Structure formats: structure tokens, C-alpha cells
């Protein structure tokens, strides 16, 4: 019953978007993007502004011309309102508020309205920055994402969030704003540096561990091919991981993260801390791999997961090329405690209430817990540190080198 004198307002808004997989998205005869942009109002000509990751542009020097030519060929349906706008790739896209102001200014100058499109092409960082700018113009301009990294194609790009960094805090400013559509062009991944490609595997391993044992078995069986970057296995990994992430967001009942449980953040309480402790020298995916290894060992130590399964997980991480140890795990605070463990409190604060961390009860089955035993975590990390060969282990070298 309503409290007297109170009007209770309740409604829900259905969201629906396609995640398309294609190759050669800007080949003139590829209809995928044209059809997505014109699906809702086929009679109209659709105006679009393209924001492109400068790192992608540098690796694909012909892309700008190919985009312009695509809009020319499809001019009956599409209009490119301005030359492609370049944004710096990587975290730089999210650290400088002047870049967001520049995007807002460009959207304003070209009269991008709520029926027009922002097409964002790039890694997760550029998608986050361009998505945030689009979401805050006219209270939300239609955004089509074309992710260009393994991580953004198989995880972040298919999700509903965007964000930029502010006050030294990652993703402090941001919105929940589902995209109009996502187009994953697997060909774009070919130019990705090896380190970036491998980092993206961590999110696929993560989602397999919490949701799909058969997918984990498949990754294990294909780990060497994935490490080599073979096109077939890479494509399967991206498609299946994107599907599992998208399905989780749609079906787990909390797409806008109102509650405390965030199963897709398995392994992330330490990952976020390791990223900041290394000043982002560690890639997000690498940090997630370290976090997944740690939380799998912890799951075994508290009797949830069989010990051999924890070892199997670590072996798969190593086999695809991810580090399972990094010197940042050893950084100490003045009181002697490991700095990474502060990630637990940061995570609780981010959730906004009770600590809820996902662990594993089996491969393919996550389980939520509300406490972590920091003394036990210290002991696990001590044991792991002692197992490292003196003077820098293989795992360290892999984590530290940029390729
Ligand atoms: N919104 C979300 O839900 C969400 C989720 C997870 C991560 N993220 C964010 O994603 C970001 C990380 O994204 P990322 O791992 O995709 O990498 P990234 O965006 O940091 O890009 C890494 C580097 O690769 C370059 N690059 C991108 N695609 C390329 C290609 N095809 N060929 C050559 N170079 C290419 C970029 O220019 C950049 O230098 C972080 O800022 C993280 O916070 C967002
Ligand atoms: Zn992640």
C-alpha cells in the first residue's frame, strides 16, 4: 500500500541492441553498419559523426578514407557530418577533460541530435570517452560502438557503461547508457600488439570461470593457438566471451549495478588496485589475470574449490601468455601489510555497501561471499612470492615487458 499522500511512480524501459560480428566493416559492399544505422527509420537519411582511436588510425592508415568512401557509397541512407575526429588511444582519452569538451563542442557544432549517431571506433578507453561525451549531449545521443581490442570486443564494448577518470579516480564520471548497437569487426584485431591481445584473454577466462565450464575447457585446449594469435580460435574466443558477458548483463537481473553483487568483476578487487599501484603500467587484462589467479587460489584455500582446479586455472593463464605474478603484489605499506589488500576496502566502497566478492565453487560456477580473510591472503601471497625464482621470475618478466 502507498503511504498516504504519496504517488508511487514505477516503470521500466526495455533496452535492445544488436551485437553484430563481421569482417571488413567499411568494405563498400558490407551492409552491416548501414543496415544497423537505418534499421529504426529506413526512410530517413542518417547523420553520423565518427570518433576514431588515434592508435587504430596509425595502424590502419587507410581507415579514414575507407570510412569516408563507405558513407559516399551509402549516401542514400547515411551522411557523415564531419571529417573523422581522432582521439588519443588508451587511458589518455579518459584523463583529459579538455578532450571531452572538444567532443561536446564538435557534436554541438554539427547539430548532432537525438536521432543522429556517434560512431565510436577504438579500444575500451576511446569507447568510454566518446560514449560518455555522447551520453551527456541532449541527455543521450545514439552511440554505435566499434570496439578494436580483444578486451573491448569480448567484454567492455558489449556492456552498458561508459566513463572517464577524474580527481585521480578511475571512471569517476560516467553513465549507464546502453549503446544503439555494437559492431565487432574481427579483422580490426589483426594490428593489435601481442600484449594487448593477450591481456584481453583474461576477461574471457574470467567469464568462463564464473559461467561456462565448457568454454574454459575450450580455452584450455586452445591455449597455445590463442597465445600465437591464430585467427580461428581468436574469433571463437571473442564471440563466445562477448555472448556470455552480454547474456549476463541482460539476464542476471541488475544491468545498471544497483545491488552489491558484481560477478563479472571476479578477480577485479585486486586487479583495480594493481593497476593503480603500477600507475597503469599493468594492462587491465593483465591485472585481471593476476586477480583471477589469486582469487582461484583463495577459493581453494577456503575449501570452495578443489586445489587441482586452482592450479589448472593458473596453468591456463600462463599458457595463453598472461602473467600470474607481478612485483606489485609484493608492495608493502609502512605497517608491513601488502598494499594490494587495500583493494578490498576500495571495492567495498565502490559497491557502496556490503562487501560482495565472487569466488569459485567449481570451474564454471561463481559464488558470492561477504568477507575475505586478509591474513590468509597474505599467507597465500607469501607462498607464491617464495615460489618465484630469485631475481625475477618468468611470470614477472611477462607482466613487465611491453611488446
Ligand atoms: N565501460 C566498461 O564497461 C569498461 C569495462 C572494462 C574496461 N573498460 C575500460 O577499457 C579501457 C581499456 O581498454 P582496452 O584494453 O580495450 O585498451 P585501450 O583502449 O587502453 O587501448 C590500448 C592501446 O591499443 C591501441 N589500439 C586499440 N585498438 C587497436 C588496434 N586494432 N590496432 C592497434 N592498436 C590498437 C590504442 O590506441 C591504445 O594505445 C580502460 O580504460 C578500462 O577502464 C571499460
Ligand atoms: Zn575487467
Question: What does this entry look like structurally?
Answer:
By secondary structure, the chain is of the alpha/beta class. Helices cover 46% and strands 14% of the residues. The protein is built from 17 helices and eleven strands. The chain has helices at residues 32-38, 54-59, 63-73, 92-95, 97-109, 124-135, 150-154, 194-211, 213-221, 223-228, 231-251, 268-277, 284-301, 307-320, 342-351, 374-386, 394-400; strands at residues 18-22, 46-53, 78-80, 85-87, 117-122, 142-147, 164-166, 169-173, 181-185, 357-362, 365-369. Strands 1, 2, 3, 4, 5, 6 and 9 form a seven-stranded parallel β-sheet that branches. A two-stranded antiparallel ribbon has the order 7-8. Residues 391-403 have low confidence and may be disordered. Bound molecules: nicotinamide-adenine-dinucleotide and zinc ion (ZN). Residues 53, 55-56, 59, 89-91, 94, 122-126, 128, 148-149, 151-152, 155-156, 159, 161-162, 171, 188-189, 191-192, 196, 284 line the site of nicotinamide-adenine-dinucleotide.
Please report the total strand number as a whole number: 11
Could you say which small molecules are bound to this protein? nicotinamide-adenine-dinucleotide, zinc ion
Number of helices: 17
Mean pLDDT across residues: 94
Instruction: Please estimate the helix content.
Output: 40-55%
Shape: globular
* Residue fraction in strands: 5-15%
> What does the main sheet amount to?
7 strands, parallel
- Structural class, by secondary structure, is alpha/beta
- Stretches where pLDDT falls below 50 for ≥5 residues? 391-403
Cα distance, first to last residue? 62 Å
Radius of gyration: 22 Å
Order of helices and strands: EHEHHEEHHEHEHEEEHHHHHHHHEEHH
Amino acid at each position: 500500500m502507498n503511504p498516504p499522500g504519496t504517488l508511487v511512480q514505477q516503470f521500466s524501459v526495455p533496452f535492445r541492441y544488436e551485437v553484430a560480428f563481421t569482417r571488413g566493416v567499411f568494405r563498400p559492399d558490407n551492409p552491416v553498419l548501414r543496415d544497423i544505422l537505418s534499421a529504426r527509420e529506413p526512410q530517413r537519411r542518417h547523420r553520423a559523426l565518427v570518433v576514431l582511436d588515434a592508435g587504430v588510425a596509425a595502424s590502419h592508415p587507410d581507415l579514414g578514407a575507407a570510412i569516408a568512401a563507405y558513407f559516399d557509397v551509402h549516401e542514400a541512407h547515411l551522411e557523415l557530418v564531419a571529417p573523422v575526429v581522432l582521439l588519443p588511444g588508451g587511458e589518455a582519452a579518459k584523463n583529459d577533460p579538455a578532450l571531452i569538451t572538444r567532443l561536446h563542442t564538435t557534436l554541438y557544432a554539427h547539430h548532432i541530435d537525438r536521432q543522429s549517431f556517434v560512431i565510436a571506433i577504438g579500444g575500451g578507453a576511446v569507447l568510454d570517452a566518446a560514449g560518455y561525451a555522447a551520453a551527456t549531449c541532449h541527455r543521450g545521443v545514439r552511440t554505435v560502438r566499434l570496439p578494436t581490442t580483444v578486451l573491448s570486443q569480448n567484454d567492455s564494448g558489449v556492456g552498458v557503461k561508459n566513463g572517464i577518470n577524474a580527481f585521480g579516480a578511475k571512471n569517476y564520471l560516467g553513465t549507464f547508457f546502453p549503446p544503439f548497437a555494437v559492431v565487432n569487426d574481427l579483422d580490426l584485431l589483426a594490428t593489435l600488439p601481442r600484449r594487448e591481445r593477450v591481456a584481453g584473454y583474461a576477461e574471457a577466462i574470467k567469464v568462463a570461470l564464473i559461467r561456462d565450464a565448457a568454454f574454459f575447457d575450450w580455452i584450455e585446449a586452445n591455449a597455445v593457438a590463442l597465445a600465437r594469435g591464430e585467427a580461428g580460435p581468436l574469433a571463437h574466443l571473442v564471440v563466445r566471451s562477448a555472448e556470455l558477458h552480454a547474456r549476463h548483463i541482460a539476464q542476471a537481473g541488475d544491468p545498471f549495478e544497483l545491488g552489491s553483487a558484481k560477478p563479472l568483476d571476479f578477480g577485479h578487487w585486486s586487479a583495480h588496485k594493481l593497476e593503480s599501484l603500477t600507475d597503469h603500467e599493468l594492462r587491465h587484462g593483465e591485472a585481471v589475470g593476476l586477480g583471477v589467479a589469486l582469487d582461484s587460489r583463495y577459493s581453494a584455500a577456503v575449501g570452495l574449490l578443489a586445489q587441482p582446479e586452482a592450479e589448472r586455472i593458473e596453468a591456463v593463464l600462463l599458457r595463453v601468455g598472461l602473467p600470474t605474478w607481478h612485483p606489485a603484489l609484493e608492495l608493502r605499506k609502512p605497517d608491513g601489510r601488502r598494499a594490494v589488500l587495500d583493494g578490498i576496502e576500495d571495492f567495498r566502497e565502490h559497491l557502496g555497501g556490503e562487501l560482495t566478492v565472487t569466488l569459485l565453487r567449481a570451474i564454471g560456477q561463481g559464488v558470492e561471499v561477504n568477507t575475505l580473510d586478509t591474513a590468509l591472503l597474505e599467507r597465500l601471497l607469501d607462498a607464491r612470492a617464495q615460489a618465484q625464482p630469485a631475481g625475477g621470475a618468468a611470470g614477472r618478466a611477462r607482466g613487465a615487458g611491453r611488446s
